[in-house]
Design a protein that fits this description.
The longest helix has about 50 residues, at about 20-65. The protein is built from two helices and no strands. With about 70 residues, the chain is mainly alpha-helical. The protein is about 80% helix and about 0% strand.
């Protein structure tokens, strides 16, 4: 496998097409990152809500038992 570019600057410039290539790569990585982070964040929020609901129900049962 041969290296196609002789310097880092030539790699970044890519024969004058670098701005298009690197913009596309950046947008693609941003979209990928969003597609990974949003579900992870939603999952964490859901787990937190379940935990809060369980604590609320436990307190409600304790209060109901105390009222008897």
């Amino acid at each position: 496998m041969a290296i196609q570019f002789s310097s880092w600057l030539e790699l970044i410039d890519m024969g004058g097409h670098g701005i298009f290539v690197w913009t596309t790569v950046s947008v693609s990585l941003l979209i990928f990152l969003i597609l990974v982070l949003l579900p992870v964040s939603a999952h964490s929020r859901t787990l937190k809500n379940v935990e809060l609901n369980m604590e609320f129900e436990a307190r409600s049962l304790q209060n109901a038992d105390a009222d008897k």
